[in-house]
Amino acid sequence: MSDSQDPDVTRLLRDLTRELQVLRRELDSDRRRGSRRRQLSRFTSEVAIPSVILVLETNIRALKLLRRAIRLAEGREPRERRGTREDIQDRAEQLGSEALSRLDQTLATVQSSLEEGSADEEVGQLIDEARQLQSQISQQLDTERTVDEAQQPTDREAPSDPVAIDVDTELQTLKDNLDDGADENADDTPPGDDSGEPP
Residue 98 above 50 pLDDT? Predict the structure, then answer.
C-alpha cells in the first residue's frame, strides 16, 4: 500500500468506529426502552388491573349499602345487619376514595418516571410499592368478607329436621272434629226453627 492511502484508511476506520459507537448507544437505549415497556406491562397486569378490580368491588359494596338504605327508608328490613347505615356508608366511601387516590398517585409517579427516563430502580421500587398497596387492600377486603360471612344469618327457610306427618291420623282427627261440631249444632237448634233441615 502506498502512503497516500493510509490516511484514507485511518479516516475511514475512525468514521466506522464512530458509527458503530452511535449504533451501540441507540441499541442500548432501545433495550432500556424495551425493558421499561415490559415493566410497564407487568405493572399494568399485576398492579393496575387488580387495583381497578378492587375499586370496582368497593363500588359494588357502596351500591349494596345504598340498596340497604333504600330498604330502610321504605320501612322494610335490610337483609343484613352490620351497624348503622351511616357508618357503613361512610366506611365504604372512605375505602373507595383512599384506594382511588393511592392508585392515581402511583400511576402518575410511574408515568412521570417513565417519561423522564429515570433509572430502572425507581420503576422497580414503584412497582413494589404498588404491589404492597394492592396486597394491603386485598387483605383488608378479605378480612371484611370473612367478617361479613360470619355475621350473615343462617337460612331460616330451610327446615332443620323434616317433620313426619301421619296423614291418616290427621284426616281422622279432622273428621272427628267435624262430626263433633255437627252434633253440637244440632243440639243448639231451637225446636221451632224452620231452617229446612230435618231435626
Answer: yes
